[in-house]
Fold:
Amino acid sequence: MHTEPDTRAPRVFPSTRESLVRAFTSGDPGVRRAGFEALVAAYWRPAYAHLRLRWHQEPADAEDGVQEFFTVALAQEFFSAYDPAQARFRTFLRLCLDRFAAKAHRAERRLRRGGGAVHLSLDFAGAEQALEVLAPGQSEEHAFDREWVRSLFDGAIEALELECHADGYEIRFEVFKQYDLVTDGEAVRPTYRAIAERLGIPATQVTNHLAWSRRRLRVLLLERLRELCGSEAEFQDEAVTLFGVDAA
Amino acid sequence: MSPISGETLRHLQRVLEEPELEGDRYRLGPLLGRGGMGVVYQATDLALGREVALKVLRPEFAEGAADVRFRREAQILARLEHPGIVAVHDVGMLRDGRRFYVMKLVRGARLDDSSQRRSLPERLRSFLRICETIEFAHVRGVIHRDLKPGNIMIGEFGEVLVLDWGIARVLATQPEEAGAAPATSPAAGDTASGTVLGTPGYMAPEQQSGQIDLVDARSDVFSLGAILRDLAAESDPAPRPLQSIWRKAMNPEAGDRYSSAAALAADVGRFLDAQPVQAHRETWPERAGRFYRTYQTAILLVLAYLTMRLLFLAGRGF
Structure:
C-alpha cells in the first residue's frame, strides 16, 4: 500500500461518453445489452423503492416486479421509444414503471424467462434496508429520485474503491471511507488528526487523500450521469439533483 | 457494498459541491444561493479579514461554454465599476479545476422578496436605480440579458444591485472599449445564434426566438418593463399611466419600445413627479385627477375658503 500522496491530479472532468440512453437505438445487440445492464445498475433500486412506496407492494412482490419490469423492458425494447425532447429519461422510466405496475396482474408476474431474457442478480435485502420512510409532505417520486441518486453514488464509490486498489493507493479510499462514509453522521465523524493517527500517516496527507478522493468521485459521478442522460441539457438539469443539498 | 445511508448521502452531496479551499486565502462559510451556473457562498478573506461572497462554477459546468461565460462574467463585472454592480475582488481556479471569483458581500433581499413591504413610490425609486445601472452598462456595450426580480438585490440601506451577469453580451466595440481585453470582444464565448438563454416571462421576443443578432439594449428594456409590471402589480389596481409605460417597454416590436433604459426611467420619473408620461395619452378625467393629486392641498384650501365664503354670504342674505 502506498502512503505517499500521488502528485498526479485526477482527471478533473468527465469526458463526453456515448449516452446509454442512445445505446437502446443501436443496431448492435451487444451495445443495446451493455447499455441495458448499466441502466439496470443505476435504476433497479429506485424502481424497487417506487414499487414499495408508491404501489405499496410487499418486498417479495417488489423484487419480482423489478426483475420482471427490466426483463420485459429488454425483451420489448421499452426504452428505445424514449425521446429526449419530451422528458428526462428518469421521468420516462418512472412512467414506464407506473404503467407496467398498473397493468401487471399478480398471476402474470411470475416471469417466463427464456430466450434473450436476463436474470438480474440484485441485492434486494440491502435495498430494503436502505429504504427510508417518506417524510411528511414528500411524494413517492421523491423516494424514486432519492434512490436514483443513492444508486449513482454507490456505483461511483464502488468504482473509486476499485480504482484506488488497482493503482495501489488503497490508503486514499481508506481515508475517504473513514471520514466521508461514516454511517452515524456528523456527531461521530472523526477528526483528520484521529484518522492520521489510526492510519499512521501525517494529517496533511489525510487532507490530500480526502481531497483527491472527492475530486475523483465527482468525476466518476458526472461520467455516470452523462451516460444516463439523453442530452446535454438533461445532463445539466439532472446534475442539480445530484449535488447541492442545502445542508447546514 | 451495502447502500450508503441517507445521512452519508447528504453529506457527500454537500461536500462534493463545495469548493475546495483548504489552505487557501479564503475560509468557506454558509451557502448563500445558487444561480444558473454558479453557487455562491459566504467566505472569509483571511488575508484582509473581511467577509466576502465567493461564487464558484457548478461541477457539471466546469468545462465548455459555461466555463467561458463564467470567466466573462467576472471580467464584465470588473470593468463595470458602478454602485449598482457588485465589485469583483479576486478571480481564480480551484484545485479541482473549477473557476471562482470573489466579490463584495451584499446583505439584503431580492427584489421579489422585499417589494411587498414597500410603497409604490419606494418601489419605483428602486426601479429608477435599476434603470440607471443598466443604462451605465449599455453605454459600455454590455447587455445583461437576464434581468428579472431574482437578479436584483435591495441592500440593507436601500441600495440597488444588479446581479448575475453570467449571460451578458458584449456588443460591438464601443468608443470606451478601445484597448479592452480580448476576452470581452463580441465573439469570445458569446452565445451562438439559435441558443436561448434567459428567463421566460422576462425575455424579449427576439431573445426568446434565439435571434442573437437582434438582441440589443432594447431587449433589456423589455425585461425592465416586465420588472416594472411586477412591481406595479402589487398595487391593485396599477395606475393606468404606469401600465402604459410597461406596455410600451414590453412591446413585441423592439422599434416601438423605449430606445434606452434612460428613456424608460425618464417616463417613470415623470409618473413619480405627477407629470404626464410619454407612453400614455391622458383623458380629461385622468388629467383632472392628476391635477388634483398634484395640487391637492391648494385645491382643498381654496374649496374650504369658497365654502366658508358662500356660507357667510348665505347667512347675510337671510
Summary: The longest strand of chain B covers residues 26-34. Chain B touches chain A at residues 1-17, 20, 22-23, 30-31, 34, 39, 58-63, 95-97 (CB under 8 Å).
